[in-house]
Specification:
- The complex is a heterodimer.
- Chain A folds into 5 domains: about 35 residues, no CATH class; about 110 residues, no CATH class; about 110 residues, TATA-Binding Protein (2-Layer Sandwich), CATH 3.30.310; about 110 residues, no CATH class; about 90 residues, no CATH class.
- Chain A is built from 12 helices and 24 strands.
- Chain A has a 6-stranded antiparallel beta sheet with strand order 4-5-22-23-3-24. In chain A, strands 6, 11, 12, 13 and 21 form a 5-stranded antiparallel beta sheet that branches.
- The longest helix of chain A has about 30 residues.
- Chain B is mainly alpha-helical.
- In chain B, the strands form 2 sheets. A 3-stranded antiparallel beta sheet of chain B has the order 2-1-4, with no helix packed on it.
- In chain B, strand 1 and strand 2 form a beta hairpin.
- Chain B is globular.
- Chain B starts with a helix and ends in a 10-residue tail after the last helix.
- Classes of the chains: A alpha+beta, B mainly alpha.
- The complex binds protoporphyrin IX containing FE.
Chain lengths: ~550, ~400
């Protein structure tokens, strides 16, 4: 393909519409086309407008089209709304296959079957985002390089056709030297960068705002890149950690390096007698939580110890982990996420069912129950079986769901002088079964000790830097593109007249009123806006 | 302090109302002062009233902050009121760029409606639950509201454009949709009126009802129940018997409020139409006679340009920082977050359509209207209907 040499002497790349230097119309189609020039991208040679042969060209052209980009944005937008119709999987705490149908009937079932319960994690949603990303990259590359070249190569003196076909254009028969100096001064006062060449004038400002969209797109790409990083193993850690008051646990995913001791969990409510301002609101709401807090100690393992040996720990810090105030160390953060109140010990009294007389009390540690409790005088209780988290299995057998004492149940053998062989009793919360008939003794429930367990989330996110960087660059880019605009004013001698033409990438009203101030005190007539009547112009960046 | 605070808000509200009348006056008298450029006497008074009102509302905000010990943006009433204030603030800024009082005539009623709507929610000063105890939250909420308010100015300007541009001599799809927008504004007024009337009358009735799991619960209506709750049993003597009973998965109480508001809106709208004898938009048309279309178009677009970065910063970036602190993840696909993303994507699409497809003028004005609908949806429906982590209202 050949480069195009303009009559002004500048050599333009193939596909150029307006000469980069003087603005002469090079593209035959464009010449008799319209009254006004299409100034987008300065009529530079964009790859997508020039080549359409190979597959790569076709893919390039597809993704570089803003039309495609807008469609991608709109499809993503619509898809995102669908995900908010019903709660997503991560916000429900029941198995999804039952939950959706049970709560929302046939619609819920359909929603679940279509996979909409995990829409934002679905392959097609990720594909959409990925295509958006690709589109951003190609679209920006397609435009930014030629635009940069064209803006850099522009000369002060412009081709007649170029000036005549600007949207804001005016002709003055004669201009005094005085008027020109005034205009120049007033342009400089308004922070225009004024260049002069053989009596012609080009005043320009805000060119850097043209890079705004590209800068913000780069920010977006870095942000999306940060999102991809998370899929790399080890980059992203997200674990739950439950620690009971008074206990110490290894922090997961730290390779056994760190240990967390939970000294106390604190739950505070607002007190309407103390916080008088909130009295009415508290009355309306019942109780309002003021604080969730775990007082913890962080330890680091001193040395590598032999397997099975208790690790030697060195205290790193004391900290009060509260909501909004995580404990942070070496890239890890420990957040206060939840808490539960766990049963710690249960007390019973061995009681004669007839006389209601107690033969002694026992307290069972639910983490470490003893095998046998001797109550003296020939009375004793043996634990034959213990189910910390009791339920009946499908087969009807009693089993335990977990090691956590959520619903403890026991099979006791109660030995007494009357029944030296012992009586068997199955005891769970609110129920007692006597498998071998009527017993003389029962285990009367006396009470339960509880302990708080703090629920932490341990998080490490090594992609955060990309997210933050992307966000900052994006903000710089949008502000650059939105709060400034690129304005150019040409004042040039043509045919013994003085022509004034102007262009801006947006906010024509602002440009026009600025021209009025710049021309103040001169005999120049205000140039006309030739699109005023039609309102069908296109703006560009 | 709390009393002073509500008085200041009331004063602001009255000032905004009076200012709106003056904005109207400033247009009416335009003919006489046509030769003089710039704002006339009425207009100047209107702007001064607006600024004094804004300062008064700022006073409400600060005194309430002192009383509560935290920035008052933590429940539906406070947030919506703040949004109304931001709307007035955004108008003042844009006014000083473009100096047109017509924009005030269209923006102030919207701001007044927003504040009136806010006042229908419980106005008690609420304590902050732990997740909300973060200054990032306050930075996030205020910045997001300011961004949305600036974007809403583009709606007001878009409305002016549509009122002027759409031919009212024959009915068409365009006149229908424009009138729908007008009706929606009237319906909000309808909601405010029915809520105030029933609350002034102290109306209450209680029901026993069964939710979708069959669990018994008590619900209290503050308006006569047209739609009763599932398996509802009226507990209040002389209470109004529901006309229809709703299935359990529908929130009958909220639906009831919506129906009452729509009915009030329809009555009001009917009355207005009866008096005007033409469409509301047609009646407004003479007011916009003197404005240039491409001028309002630019105001509309400029508001988007100014508002979009602010919205991004507040609703997405600050939100992510707060979410990272409070919930340990900067993004969690919570409905409120998703709707902020949707709003953002929408305005991104808006700007690309305008830039590359040349969607100027009327198309751009319609987009500004849709954008405002999305913002309102996020504010109202997502909070009240699609309850998420962010949901303020009970
Ligand atoms: C969510 C994703 C996107 C956001 C937030 C975004 C944001 C922006 C912003 C703020 C501008 C400047 C607009 C103005 O100053 O009025 C812009 C311009 C631009 N965007 Fe995007 N953009 C996104 C996606 C895309 C995609 C996918 C493409 C590619 C097809 C694209 C292509 C462009 C182009 C070419 C411009 C310059 C306008 C022109 O010269 O026609 N953008 N973008």
């Amino acid at each position: 393909m050949n480069d195009v040499k303009c009559e002004c002497g500048h050599v333009n790349p193939h596909g150029t519409v307006l000469c980069e230097a003087c603005g002469k119309v090079l593209d035959e189609n464009e010449i008799n086309n319209k009254e006004l020039l299409d100034m987008r991208y300065e009529g530079s040679a964009r790859r997508s407008q020039t080549y359409n042969k190979t597959i790569i060209d076709k893919i390039w052209n597809f993704f570089s089209s803003v039309k495609v980009g807008v469609w991608l944005i709109i499809i993503t937008l619509i898809a995102s709304t669908i995900g908010t119709i019903l709660p997503q999987e991560m916000y429900i705490n029941q198995p999804p296959d039952v939950y959706y149908e049970q709560e929302y009937g046939w619609f819920g079932k359909l929603y679940y079957q279509l996979g909409l319960h995990d829409l934002y994690g679905s392959w097609w949603y990720l594909l959409l985002i990925a295509m958006l990303g690709i589109s951003l990259v190609i679209c920006s590359l397609d435009r930014v390089v030629p635009l940069y070249k064209a803006l850099k190569a522009q000369r002060v003196t412009r081709n007649e056709g170029f000036l005549k076909r600007q949207r804001v254009f005016g002709v003055n028969e004669i201009a005094s030297e005085n008027d020109l100096t005034t205009i120049k001064k007033q342009l400089k006062d308004r922070r225009y960068h004024v260049r002069e060449e053989n009596g012609d004038l080009l005043a320009e400002k805000g060119r850097f705002s043209r890079w705004g969209p590209y800068v913000n797109h780069v920010g977006l790409i870095i942000f999306l890149f940060g999102g991809i990083l998370r899929f790399i193993p080890g980059f992203y850690v997200n674990e739950n950690l439950w620690v009971k008051e008074g206990e110490t646990a290894a922090v997961p995913e730290t390779g056994g390096q760190f240990y967390l001791q939970n000294n106390q969990f604190i739950l505070q409510h607002y007190d309407k007698n103390k916080d008088k301002t909130f009295e009415k609101a508290i009355d309306r709401a019942g109780a309002v939580v003021k604080n969730y807090q775990s007082n913890v100690v962080l330890y680091k393992r001193e040395s590598n110890n032999l397997p099975g040996e208790k690790p030697k720990l060195k205290k790193v810090t004391d900290y009060k982990v509260r909501v909004n105030q995580p404990l942070t160390f070496e890239g890890y953060s420990v957040f206060q996420a939840s808490f539960r109140n766990e049963m710690n010990a249960m007390s019973f009294s061995l009681t004669n069912k007839k006389t209601n007389q107690s033969a002694g009390n026992l307290k069972i540690d639910l983490q470490n129950p003893k095998g046998k409790y001797d109550l003296g005088n020939g009375y004793s209780v043996e634990i034959l079986n213990y189910f910390p988290d009791f339920e009946f299995a499908k087969s009807g057998e009693p089993t335990t769901k977990s090691r956590v004492p959520n619903n403890p149940a026991f099979v006791f053998r109660m030995t007494s002088p009357e029944k030296p062989k012992g009586e068997t009793s199955f005891v769970a919360i609110k129920q007692t079964i006597e498998p071998f008939g009527d017993n003389t003794y029962k285990m009367a429930f006396k009470g339960v000790d509880t302990k708080n367990v703090s629920g932490f989330i341990v998080r490490k996110d090594s992609s955060l830097w990309a997210i933050i960087l992307g966000g900052i660059i994006f903000m710089i880019g949008v502000i650059q593109g939105a709060y400034w605009n690129h304005r150019r004013i040409w004042v040039q001698n043509k045919n013994g007249q003085v022509w004034l033409a102007a262009h801006t990438n947006k906010n024509w009203y602002g440009l026009k009123s600025e021209i009025e101030t710049v021309l103040l005190g001169t005999k120049f007539s205000i140039p006309e806006d030739r699109l005023q009547k039609e309102n069908t112009d296109k703006e560009d960046v | 302090m709390a009393t002073l605070s509500s008085n200041l808000l009331f004063i602001a509200f009255i000032l905004y109302l009076v200012a709106t009348l003056f904005y109207g006056g400033s247009i009416k008298t335009k003919k006489e002062s046509n030769e003089k450029k710039g704002t006339n006497r009425w207009g100047t008074i209107a702007v001064v009233l607006t600024i004094v009102g804004f300062i008064s509302q700022l006073g409400y905000f600060i005194t309430r902050w002192i009383a509560a010990g935290h920035a008052p943006v933590s429940n539906m009433f406070e947030f919506t009121t703040f949004f109304g204030m931001a709307l007035v603030g955004a108008f003042i800024v844009i006014y000083f760029i473009y100096r047109t009082t017509l924009l005030g005539l269209f923006t102030m009623p919207v701001a007044i409606l927003v504040i009136a709507y806010a006042s229908m929610f419980p106005r008690d000063i609420t304590p902050l639950i732990p997740a909300l105890q973060s200054y990032w939250l306050h930075i996030h909420v205020t910045t997001a509201a300011i961004g949305e308010a600036i974007l809403a100015i583009s709606f007001a300007a878009g409305l002016i454009y549509l009122v002027k541009a759409i031919d009212q001599t024959k009915s068409s799809k365009r006149t229908f949709w424009l009138e729908t927008v007008m009706f929606s504004l009237v319906a909000v007024l309808g909601f405010v009126i029915v809520s105030s009337v029933f609350s002034a009358a102290g109306y209450h009735e209680k029901f026993n009802w069964a939710d979708k799991h069959g669990a018994e619960a008590v619900v209290e209506y503050t308006m006569p129940a047209l739609t009763g709750p599932h398996a509802g049993e009226l507990l209040t003597k002389d209470g109004f018997k529901p006309l229809v009973e709703m299935p359990a998965f529908i929130n009958a109480k909220k639906l009831n409020t919506v129906i009452w508001s729509l009915m009030a809106g329809l009555v009001l709208f009917g009355l207005i139409r009866l008096v005007l004898r033409k469409r509301i938009a047609a009646a407004l048309q003479p007011l916009v006679k003197n404005i240039k279309l491409d001028f309002v178009d630019e105001i509309s677009y400029r508001s988007v340009l100014i508002g979009f970065p602010v919205f991004t910063l507040g609703a997405l970036i600050f939100a992510m920082i707060w979410a990272q602190m409070a919930w340990s993840r900067f993004w969690g696909w919570d409905p409120k977050e998703v709707w902020a993303l949707i709003t953002w994507l929408f305005y991104a699409a808006f700007m690309h359509l305008r830039l590359s497809k040349g969607w100027h003028g009327e198309k751009s004005a319609w987009l500004a209207v849709i954008g405002f609908v999305i913002i309102m949806f996020n504010l109202v429906a997502v909070n009240l209907v699609i309850a998420g982590l962010h949901s303020y209202a009970g």
